[in-house]
Amino acid sequence: MNDTLKADNNTISERLRNAEREVKAIDPVSQLIGNDDIEMAYSIQDMNTEYRINQGARIVGKKIGLTSTAVQEQLGVDQPDFGILFDDMLITNNGSIERHRMLRPKAEGEIAFMLKKDLTKNKHDWSDILEATDYITAAIEIVDSRIRDWKIKITDTIADNASAAYYVISEMKRSVQGFDLENCEMTLTLNGETASTGKGSGCMDNPLNAMVWLADKMVELKKPLRAGEIILSGALGKFVDIESGDIVRLDIEGLDPVEISIL
C-alpha cells in the first residue's frame, strides 16, 4: 500500500469512527473510495477492527450482510458482504438499547450459527458447514449506517463494518441437523404488528449458502472462521425502521423467539 493510499484509508477510517462515537452521520465514503474498490473498502474496515481491538474490544464472530434480495433492493446493492461482531454488540434477549446511541437503526430477522470447528478449506460445501456448527438460534440484528440517510453503495457499507451495530440471540440452542433452514417461516413484529415476513430461502436461497460464501471468503483473506465464533447468516426478509418506544420481536419456525426494546 503506497503512502498516499494509506493516508486516505486512515482519513476515511477515522471519519467512520468519529461518526459512530459522536452518533453523527457523514457523507458517503464511496465518494472517496469509488463504488467498486471492494479491496480498499475492506482495508478500511480492517483498520477500524484493529483500532477496536487496541481499545480492548474482543472479536466474537462475523455478520453476513446483504444476503436478502429484498434488502439488496431496499439499499440498491447487488452482492453480500461481511462485518465483524465485537463482544460489546450483544444485547440480552428481552433486553433493551437506547435509541440515542444510534443514527437510523433498522432491525432484521436472521439465523445465527455457533461454530464448534474451524472452517479452513479453500472451497466449502453444506456438509462442511453442518459438521462445523454446534447449534443455531434466532437472532435480531440491529443495523445502523454511519452514512447519512443510508445513501450507501457497497463500498460504503463494507468500510462501515457492514453497517453492524447490535444483535440479540435466543437462549435456545437448536441442533442444525434436521432443521429446515430453507423453508422455516420468519415473522418480525413491531409493537405487536407484523412488520416483515420471510423464510430461510430469503437468505441466498438457503442460509447455508451464505455460510459457505463467508467461509470461502475468510479463507481467501487468510482469516478462516474458527471454533467458538458466532455467525449472523443474513436477513430472511426486509429490514424495518425502529424508533424509541418500539418493541421488536422475532419468531422463526422451530426456534425460540427473540425480543428487544428500544428506549
Keywords:
single chain; 263 residues; alpha+beta; eight-stranded mixed beta sheet; five-stranded mixed beta sheet; 7 helices; 13 strands; 29% strand; globular
SSE arrangement:
Blueprint: H1 3-22, H2 30-33, H3 38-54, E1 59-65, H4 69-75, E2 81-86, E3 90-91, E4 95-97, E5 106-115, H5 126-132, E6 133-143, H6 154-159, E7 164-169, E8 185-190, E9 193-199, H7 207-220, E10 230-235, E11 240-241, E12 247-252, E13 258-262
Parallel strand pairs: 1-10, 3-7, 4-13
Antiparallel strand pairs: 1-2, 5-6, 5-10, 5-11, 6-7, 8-9, 8-12, 12-13
Helix pairs in contact: 1-3, 5-7
Can you tell me about this structure?
The chain has 263 residues and is of the alpha+beta class. It has helices spanning 3-22, 30-33, 38-54, 69-75, 126-132, 154-159, 207-220, and strands spanning 59-65, 81-86, 90-91, 95-97, 106-115, 133-143, 164-169, 185-190, 193-199, 230-235, 240-241, 247-252, 258-262. Strands 1, 2, 3, 5, 6, 7, 10 and 11 form an 8-stranded mixed beta sheet that branches.
Can I get a quick summary?
By secondary structure, the chain is an alpha+beta fold. The chain has seven helices and 13 strands.
What is the N-to-C succession of helices and strands?
HHHEHEEEEHEHEEEHEEEE
Q: Rg from C-alpha positions?
A: 17 Å
Determine the structural class based on helices, strands and strand pairing: alpha+beta
User: pLDDT below 50 for ≥5 consecutive residues: which ranges?
Assistant: none
Fraction in helix: 25-40%
Q: Can you tell me the overall shape?
A: globular
The CA-CA distance between the termini, in Å, is 44 Å
Can you count the helices? 7
Strand content: 25-35%
Instruction: Give the mean pLDDT.
Output: 94
Q: Note the main sheet.
A: 8 strands, mixed
Number of DSSP strands? Answer: 13
